[in-house]
Amino acid sequence: MIHRIEEASEFLRRKGFDKADVGIVLGTGLGKFIEKMEVLERVHYSSIPHFPVATMEFHAGQLVLGLVAGKRVIAMQGRFHFYEGYSTKEITFPLRVMKLLGIKNLLLSNAAGGINLNYKKGDLVLIDDHINLQTENPLTGPNPEILGPRFPDMSQPYSRDLGAKFKEIAKQKVVNIKEGVYVAVPGPNLETRAEYRFLGIIGADLVGMSTVPEVIVANHMGVPCMAVSVITDECNPDDLKSVAIDEIIAVANKADNVLSSLFAELIEKL
């Protein structure tokens, strides 16, 4: 793995992707952050050695280098998912590469279903903690100490400092931010009524199919991270409505400008 990470990193360094300050992962329907960047370089995932290739048509599938408030930012415009058939090691490979390219903080976004009945479509939820129900962990197998410790602590997987800064910026912008516990499931199907009830019972406020493997690896590497979900559908098991992926993307798109602006201001303050 180390050899592959180094090869990908060296390829990107030759493209100018070095001395980075911040990494950002843009989730489903959440790509407008690129408009906040002074773009310096774009590279399609398929051109990068050992990178997975995004299979979802609504993910641009490219790595973008740019400046935000003078900070060098590497943005993943489209992520990888367990349900695409990738292992969690493959899903998190780009984060390993971004670490070698210098990132000191990681911001993540995703689209999620709202289990907490206080959540409504379009709400922004700062993830405070998570539950991992995916069937694989990116840290299984041999653990070269150069990547991180064998047993990383997860008592505070999401940075309190980044979260506090984000909430303060949102308050100044009069944007209501909620907080909650995110549960990651394998997907790709949405959940049944009984599954939503179960997820609520075990403590989940919102549910999605990404983010947790990335957060585990960020903690393993010692990179502070934070994640924000856009609630794209309301998952009330007693009044469950059918939902299609194009509806989910449409709701995420509506929230994209606000979330992108908040992320840009947060990066300015880092």
Automatic annotation (TrEMBL):
MF annotations from Gene Ontology: purine-nucleoside phosphorylase activity
Pathway assignment: Purine metabolism; purine nucleoside salvage
Alphabetical list of Pfam families matching this protein: PNP_UDP_1
GO CC term (a single one): cytoplasm
Entry-linked CDD domains: PNP-EcPNPII_like (cd09009)
Keywords: Glycosyltransferase, Transferase
InterPro entries cross-referenced by the UniProt entry: Nucleoside_phosphorylase_d, Nucleoside_phosphorylase_sf, Pur_Nuc_Pase_Ino/Guo-sp, Purine_phosphorylase
Domain Nucleoside phosphorylase: 22-268
EC number of the protein: 2.4.2.1
Gene Ontology biological process terms from the UniProt entry: nucleoside metabolic process
Annotated SUPFAM superfamilies: Purine and uridine phosphorylases
Family: Belongs to the PNP/MTAP phosphorylase family.
Function field: The purine nucleoside phosphorylases catalyze the phosphorolytic breakdown of the N-glycosidic bond in the beta-(deoxy)ribonucleoside molecules, with the formation of the corresponding free purine bases and pentose-1-phosphate.
NCBIfam families associated with the record: PNPH (TIGR01700), PNPH-PUNA-XAPA (TIGR01697), PRK08202.1 (NF006054)
The protein's name in its UniProt record: Purine nucleoside phosphorylase
